[in-house]
Amino acid sequence: MISRRADGYIFVLCGQSKPYRKNAMHGGSGMENHDDFGSAKLPSEELEKNIQYICNLFKGDDTLQIRRVSNTANQGMKFCLLYADGMINNKLMNDDVVRPLMEYRFPESCGDLVGLLQDRVVCSNSVERTAQVEKVVQAIVYGDTVLLAEGSPEVLLLNTKGWTARAIAEPESERVLRGPREGFNESLLMNLSMIRRKLRTPDLKLNLLTFGRRTRTKACLCYLDTLVDKNVLENLKKRLSAIDIDGTLDTQYIAELIRDKPYACVDTVGSTEKPDVVCAKLLEGRIALVLDGTPQVLTVPYLFIESFQSDEDYYLSFFFASIGRILRILAFYISITLPAVYVAAVTFHPEILPASLLISTSQARQGVPFPTILEMILMLIVFEMLRESGSRMPGLMGQTLSIVGALVIGQAAVQAKIVSAPIIIIVAIVGITGLMNPKIKGFTILLRFLILVLASMLGLYGFLFGNLALLGLLYQTDSFGIPIMSNNSTRSFQDFKDSFIRAPWWYMLKRPRGLTRNQKRQKRSGAAK
Description:
By secondary structure, the chain is an alpha+beta fold. The protein folds into three domains: 2-158, no CATH class; 172-302, no CATH class; 329-479, no CATH class. The protein has helices spanning 47-57, 90-103, 113-121, 133-141, 188-198, 230-241, 251-258, 275-282, 318-347, 355-365, 372-392, 395-415, 421-434, 441-458, 460-476, 493-496, and strands spanning 10-13, 64-70, 78-84, 127-129, 145-149, 156-158, 204-211, 217-224, 270-272, 287-291, 297-300, 478-479, 482-483. The relative contact order is 0.09.
């Protein structure tokens, strides 16, 4: 059925139809819609009544355009085009719809006018016959055209969509030095075409969905049928069908509604803007959700180690990729623990510091009126404010604000004896290491403060309790039934080959355990023997 596609259509409206039912429910996506028309059809075979009926549905919308057309050879053949201004391809409309309707020589008697229009008159790559009001309304609001014909009992749906989309470009948040540079944009069909171009197999399945009672946003589930775990797929579809919201403008709306633990601070749904990343995850048995109107694509299940993986890891030598991944993991741990370790050592356990370091730290703190914990929290908050303001400012201005602000405020705070110099050094190191893992920025900030508070109350014991709580949280969290730490719960080398390090390709014989029912990725190559 053409109505299941995400692209647009033209409607040739004709026919005796059932009265409009206000409370009819729309099937297919499992979501209610205040504008659903169920199986309601247009009220009449008369052209003017149908035009008036549709115009009443769009009352108050000045962008709805009406274009009446008469056939030059047969003045009895009357048509009318209804569409939203600015959302159609004008050239396509004029050349493939308006001109054929005006110039075609209709026979004296047309037994099946809709069939004649479909097969010989209107030029379109997508045609469907229908008379449902729901499809008419959705076609207009999605940038398609409605063609009404006098005395015809059915409808034709034809594609004439023509709005412009942002050009394909490299995502700002996922820049690479080597590898594909293309990124998703806000067009669902273009995003799906980029995935299809990389996975040229009929095993790739694309299931279209609709979300939002008011926005009626199109979405698509993508997966490889022979690799996907059917239990995960059914679980995801069940959660998606339970969504009942008025609008979905970004995939984050959906991500929060389908998470395993809604209040957990750790992510259980992945997100990316790059087609090569999505295809790589599909090849491991994951499922992708593409939403119209946003470049962010969700992937499930999600493993915690993915937070430290970069798509560039697979385009560089495994030596350099492994070093980079180890540095990112180390940076994450430093970012969440260094402030807590410093506060615990200075406040509760000064004996663990070397004498020279303890003396220099004490001298730096002379004249500072605040306790160490307050200094640390104050400067961490100031740094986060500078980072957030810099990210909101345009281009070079934001970078300048972040760098100059940090230098000026840090230097002035030390000279004014508001904070000590070691605090500035700690905060600077924490800020740099925190920027190495942008995927878990929020999780890192939250953990940093939680462990810092525990260390300020219990010293190193609080620091240890915080680390144990973190491990407990990670090992108890699932993503659609798959533990997010599943790759670390075994001694098999194949489960570690793409975790803390990136092993050579000839050693990565199997896909990650638990994600797919078909773990075999490749045969053992000569280098692996």
